[in-house]
Design brief:
With about 400 residues, the chain is mostly helical. It has a domain of about 220 residues: Glycosyltransferase (Alpha/alpha barrel), CATH 1.50.10.10. It is about 45% helix and about 5% strand. It has 14 helices and 6 strands. Strands 1-2 form a two-stranded antiparallel ribbon. A hairpin with a 5-residue loop joins strand 5 and strand 6. Helix 4 packs antiparallel against helix 5. The longest helix has 18 residues. The chain starts with 12 loop residues before the first helix and ends in an 11-residue tail after the last helix. About 55% of the residues are buried. Bound molecules: the ligand O[C@@H]1[C@@H](O)[C@H](O[C@@H]2CO[C@@H](O[C@@H]3CO[C@@H](O)[C@H](O)[C@H]3O)[C@H](O)[C@H]2O)OC[C@H]1O. The site of ligand LLPRFTAL has 16 residues, from helix 6 and helix 14.
Length: about 400
């Protein structure tokens, strides 16, 4: 891996796709400051959002302590606990250097969600009730990928502890299951071993564009089992090649689910730009902050920013990826505002980047029943736009 190459030094798409690995910048753009906010103001906003999400404000909280040493993130709209939310909470906690919170979330996850046996052994049940009862024995791969990276970062910030706080060992176990389940008995890998694309669920043959995190896979290529490192490097390249196929060239919108050739998958009625898909903009933004933007990433960010520039969040809808609106309103407009703002990291000079970030800055965290997903995307956006969403490397 090369180092000290900043986001300004945009790489060609080929350079990112050649399987040789991306660049660690070691520097994180603070777009909020660049766009005129004082550092104290930014810190205050971060602290306030953190309090609202993880404190005891019943209007905005999404975290609930449980017993002496556990806690969970509640999907307040569905009244369940999801691997998505638990892994997001862990990623937020490690970025904010809150080990106590991280450990509470991980203990809950390990106790109630981790599966030791059955066809999905080594994975985590994607949805549980707040008392820990499983609602499903199936996993959702976006949880596993976030768990793995959050655990590596925890190991690098705080060191390995006793099981289950042996973070890096657990991260490697998860990634091993993700690639090798099914090789010696029943089960399915979470990545298609031939095309190297992440699946929507292990037993299906299609993908969810918002699950593609090439910037995570570059780091798995450094820290996973040695034998699997080449796969992770290739998975990063495969995802970078896949996203341009899945995202509409004019609007930048991705469908929730897509086939391996990128075409929207309407089989289950989710081949449109809806909740899951909002994360593509945030992912592109974070990848740009970490490793720089390829020309495609900059074009993709510009397209999304342009598409939403003349739209009022109160009127956000479900859209076909060509931009045709449905009557149905967006379920998570605050999350969409937040993710769109992140896209500015890949195109900071685009004419709509400042407006998107200003809109986010004017938007408060969400209150009410549907707040969980919005507020997760909100916190990630605040971290990314302030240069506080970072790669934690192993101590030298
Ligand atoms: O069928 C399930 C499938 O639903 C599950 O996917 C997880 C849940 O949906 C995704 O995020 C949701 C986006 O919409 C918001 O309204 C929800 O609050 C979010 O949770 C999430 O990324 C997936 O992990 O995966 C397993 C399948 O069996």
């Amino acid at each position: 891996m090369n180092s000290k190459k900043g986001p300004a030094d945009a790489k060609s798409d080929e350079e990112m796709d050649n399987g040789k690995g991306a660049f660690v910048t070691g520097q994180y753009p603070n777009l909020l400051e660049r766009y005129g906010h004082a550092q104290e103001e930014i810190e205050a906003r971060l602290a306030d959002a953190w309090r609202r999400l993880f404190g005891d404000d019943e209007r905005t909280r999404i975290y609930y302590p449980s017993g002496d040493d556990m806690g969970y993130m509640l999907d307040t709209g569905n009244l369940d606990v999801r691997t998505e939310g638990m892994s997001y909470g862990m990623m937020m906690a490690v970025q904010m250097d809150d080990k106590a919170l991280f450990d509470r979330l991980w203990r809950w996850t390990w106790t109630y969600m981790h599966m030791n046996e059955g066809v999905h052994a080594g994975y985590f049940a994607w949805s549980c009730a707040p008392d820990g009862t499983r609602n499903s024995s199936g996993p959702a791969p976006d949880g596993e990928e976030y768990f793995a990276l959050a655990l590596f970062f925890a190991a690098h910030r705080w060191g390995e502890g006793d099981p289950p706080l042996d973070y890096a060992a657990k991260a490697r176990d998860i990634l091993r299951a993700c690639l090798h389940n099914g090789e010696q008995g029943p089960g399915y890998p979470m990545w298609n071993r031939d095309n190297r694309l992440i699946k929507f669920v292990p037993e299906c043959a299609y993908s969810d564009p918002s699950y593609h995190l090439p910037h995570f896979y570059e780091l798995f290529a450094l820290w996973a089992d040695e034998a699997d490192r080449p796969f992770w490097r290739e998975a990063a390249a495969a995802s970078r090649a896949y996203l341009p196929l899945a995202c509409h060239p004019e609007t930048g919108l991705a469908p929730e689910y897509a086939y391996y050739d990128g075409t929207p998958n309407d089989e289950r009625g989710y081949g449109h730009f809806y909740s899951d898909a909002y994360r593509v903009a945030a992912n592109v933004g974070l990848e740009a902050a970490w490793f720089g933007a390829t020309p495609w990433m900059a074009r993709e960010a510009e397209a999304i920013l342009r598409f939403f520039a003349d739209k009022d969040p109160a009127d956000y809808r479900r859209y076909r990826i060509d931009g045709t609106p449905f009557e149905e309103p967006a379920l998570h407009p605050v999350g969409l505002v937040a993710s769109n703002a992140c896209a500015a990291l890949a195109a900071p000079d685009s004419p709509h980047a400042r407006e998107a970030v200003a809109l986010f800055w004017r938007t408060p965290v969400r209150e009410g029943e549907r707040r969980y997903y919005d507020n997760c995307l909100y916190m990630f956006a605040l971290l990314a736009l302030s240069g506080r969403y970072r790669i934690w490397m192993p101590a030298a």
